[in-house]
Amino acid sequence: MSDKQISRSSASPRRRWLARMGAAFLALGGLSAGAWAQADFPNKPLRLVVPFAAGGSDVMARAFAEKLGEVLKQPVIVENKPGGAAIIGSSYVAQAPADGYTMLWLGGGSLTPVLIKDLKFDILKSLKSVVSIARGGMTLMVPGSMPVHNFAEFLAYAKANPGKLNYSHTAGSILLSTEMLKSKAGFEAVAIPYKGSTQVAAALMANEIQMGIDVPVFYLGMIKTGKIRAIAHGSQERSPSLPDVPTLAEVGVKDLVFAFSYGIWAPAGTPDAIVEKLNAAYNEVLKDPSIRERLAQAGVVPVGGGTGVHAKAVKAEQDMWAAAAKQIGYEPQ
Length: 333
Description:
Blueprint: H1 3-39, E1 46-50, H2 58-72, E2 76-80, H3 87-94, E3 102-105, H4 123-126, E4 127-137, E5 139-143, H5 151-160, E6 166-169, H6 172-185, E7 190-193, H7 197-205, E8 211-214, H8 220-224, E9 228-233, E10 259-267, H9 272-286, H10 289-297, E11 301-302, H11 309-328
Parallel strand pairs: 1-2, 1-3, 6-7, 6-8
Antiparallel strand pairs: 3-10, 4-10, 4-11, 5-8, 5-9
């Protein structure tokens, strides 16, 4: 073998070794850049998307955004993207860059094919749970002029007046909740659709409907003045804003809740390190006395905890709706 051949032979392994080392250094450099980007997060304003019109749940979202901005040292801007039963705003966040700068404020338990016909969006696959904000339940209400003061009296009245009771619904979850209550308690009532809580409140006060199930926060003033009467609450515990109203279990309706939750989501591909950082920030906000007071006024219980807590709660809600729908043969609207 010539000196030139020997030189080429010995150089070849060396070149391969240098190439491998170069690739390794490049990989480490890329990893360091990614790690640095996560460590530097956030270094610009964040967005919190509320998939409903202004004047509803975005009021609470804005209170959280202000406090979150103080914790993260960056502004948090609330954006309303309503429409499609929360699907438009949810899809928008799912398609946003997975960098932690775009988040969604939503429960998610009602985004299920059981309640929404031809639903193509799967929140548990398209988004990643960041934190559970709070949990609560819907409340059973009757007109203040109705001659009933508790659930037992209401049930007796309903059974004594078959075919004479109407009830409101503004969403599939409310329709299904009421149908489940009718099935378990054994009374009849006719469904009347309404566009929103404002119309439902007016119908209750006018006795156009004799019962309504809804999130109680909008009705609190009317309940306190006696124009509307709350007779049962659909959560595991009593509502902080309605402490004198018993739960469904307490009035004898077992194994039925009208549960809902609030939580924060990020696009599915968001790095775990960023999600953990957001989770820690939200948990810090949940300790704030003013935030806890606002949650109590809204009739919900603060939750917090790890990143997977909210996803588990939403899955439980979806399973609840599925079981309820199967039991009474409910078809999505």
